[in-house]
Amino acid sequence: MPPKVEKEHLNVVDIASSDDDGDAQTVARKKASSLGERQLRRNISSPEIPQSSGPITPPALPSDETLDSRSFWKAGNYVIGPTSKPALLEGALEHARVHPKFLHSNATSHKWAFGAIAELMDNAVDEIQHGATFIKVDKIDIKMDNSPGPALLFLDDGGGMDPVLLRKCMSLGYSSKKSNTTIGQYGNGFKTSTMRLGADVIVFSRSTRAGKATQSVGLLSYTFLRRTGQDDVIVPMIDFDISGHWAEPIIYSTHDDWSSNLKTILEWSPFSLKEDLLLQFDDIGPHGTKIIIYNLWLNDEGIYELAFDDDDEDIRLRDEALREATTKVLKKTVELQSHISYRLRYSLRAYASMLYLRKFNNFQIILRGKPVQQFNIADELQYPKVVTYKPQVAAGSKECSVETTIGFIKETPTNVSGFNVYHKNRLIRPFWKVKSDGSVIGNGVVGVLEADFIEPAHDKQDFERSSLFVRLENRLKQMVHEYWKGHCYLMGYQPPGFAAKQKKLLANQHNNSSNLPAGGKQDSRDEQPGLDVPDVVMPEGDLASISVDQLCEENIQLFMRCEEKAQKEADLKQTVRITLPRINFRLWL
Prior knowledge:
Family: Belongs to the MORC ATPase protein family.
Oligomer: single chain
CATH class of one domain: Alpha Beta
Radius of gyration: 34 Å
Number of strands: 18
GO molecular function: ATP binding; ATP hydrolysis activity; endonuclease activity; RNA binding
Number of helices: 15
Structural class: alpha+beta
Shape: elongated
GO cellular component, one term: nucleus
CATH topology of one domain: Heat Shock Protein 90
Keywords: ATP-binding, Chromatin regulator, Coiled coil, DNA damage, DNA repair, Endonuclease, Hydrolase, Nuclease, Nucleotide-binding, Nucleus, RNA-binding, RNA-mediated gene silencing
Cofactor: Mn(2+)
């Protein structure tokens, strides 16, 4: 885009930020700026996003270019038209560009739409330290290109963003979150998540810092960038000083630049009038952030990827919900699909209920007008056991220990199993199955742990495949086997190795019975040689003094006695069936 020709000297407002304490403050100073210096300020290494300056003249595009693709996985397949690169002025430096296609390719890190929504929820949760008490997630109706359509709304009452922080939010790879407790850390979540859900997003934010109250609007529009043939990511933004009785525009270069940014926002957002645009601040309050994602993506069938009509209190993934509704399944499968381990795949309410490990004290997730009830599956386990694991962290790192709660899931199909692994209170891997498929060992066993010692992937749906992760996986496999060995009998399963021990005990019984005297009888308490089964049930408090192997051996003996009694009962019934007719015949004679 050719630079706008302006006067040689300009009065500008620089925006400075203090990264040490995380508080950004706006500092105005007057200076003389050449046109070359203004172009240098657009360098991508700066935390500020390039803003449009003046009317944008799109380059000529090929006649066969398709710009109307609304399917996310096809949205990056448009032809790049010829671009006109302006000659550098004397004293200006060349800078790297970020093509709009990068916004799309960057967003493909989110394979799952709910993962993108969770990123935006994380931003609001991180604002709890700044006083946030809620995040509202809802569907609103907007009108774009003379046709109505749904849009996603995210609204929180956190600290909000001043002009500096809004520009950093819309920059690539910048993060001002330095606390060990915050979830966000890569500075990429806002861009990837919003672009994964829809082609365009408009942000409204209010904030008060250093005694100055501001409100800002920013537009990140993939539709605008590709339809105007841009070869650089341009984000129009406008700011207001609201410390007084009315909103005063904050001018950084010229009023024409500010007006040009406003014109672009009004043309490419759902709000065509300045009055309508400013009305969007009414429900924010004195501080907070409002995000509207529109031109939502379609699936391969040409319908919206997100379903809003199936449940007025939920947002669903249409493809998963349709798969559930149209598949003819057995009763066990129906029971499985009703469990949260399955519902979280397509129900945002189910997913959000498990998204955070610890329940909030003064914060709510409000989905379509109804608060989400948080759910910790560790509270639903039978025969729970807490296992402590101390990972072997790198030398010099702080030692840590991880407590894993493991147990049998209540009243669900046995094929529900796996570990729910959290990182900094955020669910990363739900129902992670570490046991081998096809093995009965671990059926119905569910665990919960918080693994802050390993790093999550960028989409926060998995962990980086480090050596720490591999060791954790191996320890969880061992944990399942140990728990199964000592507790499976409580759910009616045979302990591991039961069949081999049963065969051995039967062989010993046969050998001992063949050595009995003719007509001799074995004492009733010695019906099973070599077994020493107590006559009384051991008090529950004494179980802690018994090893797992001893307990398992006693369980096997009890299983053997039950099977023997069942066999004797069957033999007795068979004897009765044979003997009774003979008795009746003799009586008849």
